[in-house]
Amino acid sequence: MTENLKKLPIGKQDFASMIKENYLYVDKTEYIYKLISRGSVYFLSRPRRFGKSLTVSTLAEIFRGNKELFKNLWIYDKISWEKFPIIHIDFSEIIKKSLSAIESINIRLEEIASENNIALSHTDYGIRFRELIKVMAKEKNVVILIDEYDKPIIDFLEKGQISKALENREILKNFYSVLKGNDAHIRFLFITGVSKFSKVSIFSDLNHLTDITLNRDYACMLGCTEQEITDNFPDYLNETSKTLGVSVADIRTMIKDWYNGYNWHASTERVYNPFSLLNFFLEKEFKNYWFATGTPTFLINALKNQKKLPEHTGNILVGDSFFDKFDIENIDIVSLMFQSGYLTIIKSNNKGAKWLDYPNREVKDSFMGQLLEVYAQSHLSTTTGSVESIRFALDENDWETITGHFNILFSQIPYQIFESEKEFYYHSIIHTVLSLVGVDIHSEMQTSTGRIDTVIKNDKFIYVVEFKIGEAAQAMQQIKEKEYYKPFLNDGRQVVLVGVGFDTEKKEIGGWMRE
User: What is the pTM of this model?
Assistant: First the structure.
């Protein structure tokens, strides 16, 4: 049956070759029609491997007037199919390790000029960009498509080279400032990126840009909806069902748990991660695909360095201003996680408040696993047995087993880390492991009498846990004095109070008490 299926476009970003070579294309042209018919200058932020480059490529073919490529697609008979001059700059392609950002930009401008038989007369990259726009727009206004606009910044942030990231930010700011003054020569402008830097830092001169990142009408333009899976993947669903010996309905439930959940406007449908979905249908195996394409070293190290527990990155309440405050000098971890795809909108209210959480199982489990490797200084494969044992022990209220396995994990951490971090590291590892276990866990939960270190909930128990450097009795005394247990007494599950004492000399949980 496989030979009769359309090919899965894994890694394919060129629209024309996808159509010509019989790759599966999920028709997104109705969204693109809205873009080109309603306005002319746009910005869109989405996580990596979510289809930004394919969207740009599709726009390019529409503005080249290549109607026949769209013969079986929604937009085919909806527009007049004019041909426009196009300036297409993909920063993920042009930035080279051996060249500066200015050199890379100049080379790409020269390539575009040569393709259009234009001889550029200036050497400054900003002036050359302005000259290219005006010359190409002499007969008909130009279409400008800029993909991965922030790549020259993000690359250096990942490497921890902040000064270089700041230098490239200024270069890009000067480059993009050319666009505002040439608005009269531009038919259509579309800019994509992973990060939405604050307008003050990058797009201060582009206040006319329409940011559709959180726009209701374009929330499902990238990614796959449930209906799009039904329409485009029925044969792959049937084939996967046969391979795994599971019903199609069950397959759909499982892929939803693993790969669905992304949302950029709470009132719209959630979408699937397209990269993970395609790879799953290829391999027919539930595992981490998108997360494995690039370890978020910069993000995880930032979490560790800022001593921010993983709890602070899930189910968090933010306001509208949150989405515009990301900048290099003052990086907000939660904003970075949202823009990178590790958090998504799960709900909102009519006052502008939004709640963020992990989109799906792939992201949460993978992210927590990566955090555990950082905190515990060991590969996840060596800790899997402890994680599973803790899962079962929590079902039995068996804290001897639980603390024993945590001490195994603590024993793997270099001593000098404990000397500098102490309680933060113990608490971080415990929270991360329990998140991997799959229980409902809340760290630093606020109550009317104080802040509970950790609350753990499963089907049988609610554990109210307090940590102390020193004696477990001190932790238990605080739980009782502050009456941390009171909010849970009417829940119906058994409430268990647990005091945990850390012994920093022995680098382990020195004692625990349970009531």
Answer: 0.85
